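Handout, tutorial session.
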Amino acid sequence: MDDNHPAPLDAPIDIAAPFAAGDAPALWNPEAAAAWSLLFSPVFGTWVHLKNWQALGDAGRVRLAWAWLAAAIVVFFTTLGFRLWPLFASSYDADTLQYSQWLPYVFLLAWFFGSAQAQVRTMRARFGEHYARKRWKAPMLWAIGGWAAVFVAYGYVALKGLAG
């Protein structure tokens, strides 16, 4: 596919690597990124996959990964909004709140089977297990810091809502 139109997700993966043997870029393990998304949210995994696609130089998949990342951010803040809603609303539908807690997990499954598996297949076909791995220290620190910031902001908003 050309750079302006990514290949459909069910299209065969082009395994012609533009890298000479031993010249493959350092990448994060895409399966580990998906697993860490259970703890850190789908925002984490979609960002890691985006960075991997950028390193691989696949412009079409990079654009698709940006869309998944944007959707993950929307899902993340929508879920937080639903959790804060009872503090500010005079009435709310408890069933909606109950179902909204599943939103990130449904999104995670959609992303995993709709996009993440393509990166796993691509990397296995191109490199097998023979590629330089990026260290997880920086992404983990950002994820932990991000969650700390979310908890502080969430606590502040929740306290304001309870006091108001």
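The second record follows below. Compare its token runs with those of the first.
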Amino acid sequence: MPRALALLLLTVLALPAAALANTPPTLDELLAEHYAARGGLDKLRAIESIEVHGTQTLGARTLGITVRQKRPNKLRIEVRLGDKTIIQGYDGQSAWRLAAFMQPEPLLLDGERAEGLIGQAHLNRNLVDFAAKGYQLRLAGPQDVLGRATWAIEVTKKNGDVVTHYLDQQTHLELATSQVAMHENKLQTLWTYVREHGEVNGLLFPFVEETQVGGQVTRLWRVDGIQLDVPFEDGLFSVPR
């Protein structure tokens, strides 16, 4: 076989492999890598409850916060500022708020206030069991975030809100999210940067979240501790009587 023909044949045979190597990953492949990086989808689904203690800084104020969640969709958030405590909860049916220092009776929430609380009641983040939540996902493509290569995944929720999650192409962990939302009475893009992942019972969780608007930090959330599978009673999430 002439040398030139042999080289041409080798080039042609190599093309499919090269093309395959440059094929971008599918959405399913990216999600599988993300779940594996966090510790495994089965482990994430096996979590029955979670308790998170941390602080949230908003401007000059720092609030102590405790979040408790229980499957399938129960949530209780306690916010402390000095000797004052505000509690919000959702028991799967009713969303409520209690600020005993202002009024002794709990307030039932509706409209956007209830919707915002209910939207946080899912124990796992948006990318886990998204179909069961009624979310739709779309791979938006590669994007540079903070100088790192990421894959952008758009999550459209049942109410039409769109949150874009950015997965680091090297670690496969979430690096940031972005969302267009109301801030200071106008629509703006809110960026939340996720970092300092820590291991809890073989699973990785972000311990720092920083939200920025227009390059300015508007919220800083720091986790002090996480406990999994705490045996919460259902009454903890119910409207106080």
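Points raised in discussion: Residues 96 and 108 are 4 Å apart (CA to CA).
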